[in-house]
Design a protein that fits this description.
The chain is mostly helical and 116 residues long. It has a domain of 75 residues. It contains five helices and two strands. The protein has a two-stranded antiparallel sheet with strand order 1-2. A hairpin with a 2-residue loop joins β1 and β2. The protein starts with 15 loop residues before the first helix and ends with a strand.
C-alpha cells in the first residue's frame, strides 16, 4: 500500500518570488476566506513563531485569525504583512476590452458599406 502525506503549500513558499505569486493569485480570487488562509500559509512558511514575535500577537491567535474561518482586524493583517516583509498596494483594475461591431452582414448601397 502506498503511503501519502497531506499536501502543504507552505513547503514550496521558500522564495520571495514564490510568496509574491502565491499571494497575488489568492488576492485575484476576491475570496476573503481564501486570502486569509493564503496569508496564514505564508506565515507558516516563514515561521509563525517569528511572525508572532514581530507582530506582538500570540501565535495561537495568529493561527485562528489567519485561517479560512478567521476574521482578523485590518490592523492585524497589516501587522502580519509588515512582519512578512510584504506590502499592500492598490492599482486600477484593467478596463474591459470592448467588442468590435459585427461585420458579418454587410449591405452595399452605391459603394458604401454599412453594418447591419
Amino acid at each position: 500500500m502506498t503511503k501519502t502525506s497531506p499536501y502543504d503549500s507552505a513547503e514550496f513558499l521558500n522564495t520571495p518570488a514564490a510568496i509574491e505569486f502565491y499571494m497575488a493569485e489568492a488576492l485575484e480570487t476576491g475570496d476573503p476566506a481564501f486570502i486569509m488562509h493564503a496569508l496564514g500559509v505564508v506565515a507558516r512558511a516563514k515561521s509563525m513563531s517569528d511572525i508572532a514575535r514581530k507582530t506582538g500577537l500570540a501565535r495561537e491567535n495568529l493561527y485562528k485569525a489567519l485561517s479560512a474561518t478567521g476574521s482578523p482586524e485590518f490592523s492585524t493583517v497589516l501587522r502580519v504583512l509588515k512582519a512578512l516583509d510584504l506590502k499592500l498596494t492598490i492599482q486600477p483594475k484593467p478596463a474591459k476590452a470592448t467588442k468590435p461591431l459585427p461585420t458579418k452582414n454587410v449591405v452595399r448601397k452605391k459603394g458604401v458599406k454599412a453594418a447591419v
